[in-house]
């Protein structure tokens, strides 16, 4: 359990920005591991549908037989963010309310290398929603988190918040964070900051939304994952500074930002400052009349910044 005083992080704004930059390093860990799935492992990956049925059954069984420390989360003070503890429903805890009786769920389609879509179900509990904006699947989030396996082993934990780019985190985490809202940042008299009323929740996902057949020293292949997330604050991302937010450069809306390349120059739109390769920077043709809507001078339904005509 954290004390409220632990939440007074000594981050100046400068340090907040510094952390934003170091995020790239931290996230190489997750994305590189993902990239290794096919090339290093010569054993063909399990069929997505069959694997999901197996894991979904084990997740449901787990949720029916476990509870979380929901009593520690009742009557939270604004700065409180207790650690998620999950335990079996037995013995002294036989009357606890199961996780199964408290979760909601969402479905995400996972695409295999042939483009086939396989629905995957994640289960989640929003313990405290938060009070500010929600991040999108494209944004940078300043989070504390705790990652566990179904055997309750902790494979990763951040008790001090760090910046992560949602698009570089495992899919289930990426799709979960928009369900939380950020908190307030409060400036203390000594120049330090603390966060209050930030969103708190946890998500339980099959490995198809995690690392699937990728393994690490502490995450075996095909491991369902549990993440507690505490959403301190967020930054909207515009990776190429073209004034079009990164979330709007995922044109097909599949949460994958690397497969949208309007001008087929191998630079995905979210990294491409001239999306239609017409020699006019996107920022100089996106919204010249300033009405908040992308301009479409020739009225063909394709906005100017994507229209190389
Ligand atoms: Ca996309
Ligand atoms: Ca491009
Ligand atoms: Ca762009
Ligand atoms: Ca252009």
Describe this structure in words.
The chain is of the alpha+beta class. Helix content is 17%, strand content 25%. The chain has a six-stranded antiparallel sheet with strand order 4-5-10-11-6-7. It has a three-stranded antiparallel sheet with strand order 1-9-8, with no helix packed on it. The chain has a two-stranded antiparallel sheet with strand order 2-3. The chain is globular. The model is unreliable at 1-36 (pLDDT under 50). It binds calcium ion (4 copies). The site of one calcium ion has 8 residues, from loops.
Which key features would you list for this structure?
disordered N terminus; 3 helices; alpha+beta; 2 domains; 309 residues; 6-stranded antiparallel beta sheet; 3-stranded antiparallel beta sheet
Count all strands and give the number: 11
Number of domains: 2
Q: What is the distance, rounded to the nearest whole angstrom, between the alpha carbons of the first and last residues? A: 60 Å
Structural class estimated from helices and strands: alpha+beta
**CATH architecture designation of the largest domain:** Roll
Note poorly predicted spans: 1-36
How much helix, percentage-wise, in residues? Answer: 10-25%
Order of helices and strands: EHHEEEEEEHEEEE
Taken from the alpha-carbon principal axes, the silhouette is: globular
Main sheet? 6 strands, antiparallel
Task: Give the radius of gyration.
Answer: 21 Å
Q: Can you list the ligands bound to this structure?
A: calcium ion
User: Any idea of the CATH class of the largest domain?
Assistant: Alpha Beta
CATH third-tier fold name of the largest domain = Chitinase A, domain 3
Strand content: 15-25%
- Average the pLDDT over all residues and give the rounded result: 89
Q: Write out the strand line-up for the largest beta sheet, numbering strands in chain order.
A: 4-5-10-11-6-7
Q: Determine the number of helices (DSSP H or I, runs of at least 4 residues).
A: 3
């Amino acid at each position: 359990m954290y004390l409220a005083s632990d939440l007074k992080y000594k981050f100046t704004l400068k340090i907040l920005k510094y952390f934003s930059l170091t995020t790239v390093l931290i996230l190489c860990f997750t994305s590189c591991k993902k990239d290794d799935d096919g090339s290093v492992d010569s054993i063909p990956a399990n069929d997505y549908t069959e694997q999901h049925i197996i894991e979904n059954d084990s997740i449901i069984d787990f949720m029916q037989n476990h509870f979380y420390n929901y009593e520690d989360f009742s009557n939270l003070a604004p700065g409180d963010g207790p650690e998620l503890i999950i335990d079996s429903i037995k013995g002294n805890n036989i009357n606890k309310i199961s996780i199964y009786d408290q979760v909601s769920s969402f479905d995400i389609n996972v695409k295999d290398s042939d483009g086939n879509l396989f629905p995957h179900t994640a289960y989640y509990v929003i313990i405290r929603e938060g009070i500010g904006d929600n991040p999108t699947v494209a944004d940078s989030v300043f989070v504390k988190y705790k990652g566990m396996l179904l055997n309750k082993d902790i494979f990763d934990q951040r008790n001090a918040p760090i910046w992560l780019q949602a698009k570089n985190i495992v899919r289930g985490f990426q799709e979960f964070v928009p369900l939380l809202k950020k908190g307030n940042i409060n400036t203390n008299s000594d120049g330090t900051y603390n966060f209050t009323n930030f969103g708190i929740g946890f998500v339980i996902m099959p490995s198809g939304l995690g690392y699937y057949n990728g393994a690490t020293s502490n995450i075996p292949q095909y491991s369902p994952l549990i993440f507690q997330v505490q959403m301190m604050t967020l930054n909207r991302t515009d990776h190429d500074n073209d004034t079009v937010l990164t979330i709007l450069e995922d044109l097909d809306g599949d949460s994958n930002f690397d497969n949208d390349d309007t001008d087929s120059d191998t630079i995905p739109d979210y990294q491409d400052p001239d999306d239609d390769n017409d020699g006019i920077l996107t920022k100089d043709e996106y919204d010249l009349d300033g009405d908040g809507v992308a301009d479409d001078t020739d009225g063909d339904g394709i906005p100017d910044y994507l229209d190389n005509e």
